[in-house]
């Protein structure tokens, strides 16, 4: 989509034009979904992220400054929404795991005659490794956002959205 079409779409969204909302969903919905799917690894969550992003774009279009392409702004919203949902799900999963562990302990104490040796500790998800990965991800994001737009767009399209070099 070129800059002129983006400007027309932005103007329509700012006026609350329903045709512009449909056009936003048609043009950017599949790309948002593809990117969300890459992060979420789950179709239902990716669909929810897509809907959230489309709503955020519609509600926050007045905050779009035009410093970058509309697609870059939408990409950023999609990435942030996906990461937020993943953090939320991580907390839910942790609570479920703790509940399951507590139930297992209760069952083991009720059935003390059939105790099994404890499983070895899982060292694959150390907090410092997760922190380092998070910091690296942030550093890459900052570096990509600091690129001039002429370089940033192809990097985002190719390396983050999965397009071929020719398509980017």
What is the strand and helix layout of this fold?
Layout: H1 3-15, H2 18-40, H3 43-60, H4 70-110, H5 127-146, H6 149-160
Helix pairs in contact: 1-2, 2-3, 2-4, 3-4
Number of helices: 6
Structural class: mainly alpha
Helix content: over 70%
Number of beta strands = 0
Q: Report the order of strands and helices.
A: HHHHHH
Q: Termini separation (Å)? A: 12 Å
Mean of residue pLDDT values: 83
Return Rg in Å.
22 Å
Q: How much strand? A: under 5%
Q: Which stretches are low in confidence, meaning pLDDT under 50 for 5 or more residues running?
A: none
Write up what this structure looks like.
The protein is an all-alpha fold and 168 residues long. It is 76% helix and 0% strand. The protein contains six helices and no strands. Helix 1 packs across helix 2 and helix 2 crosses helix 4. The model has no long low-confidence stretch (mean pLDDT 83).
Could you provide a short overview of the structure?
The chain is mostly helical and 168 residues long.
Search tags:
single chain, 168 residues, mainly alpha, 6 helices, 0% strand, elongated
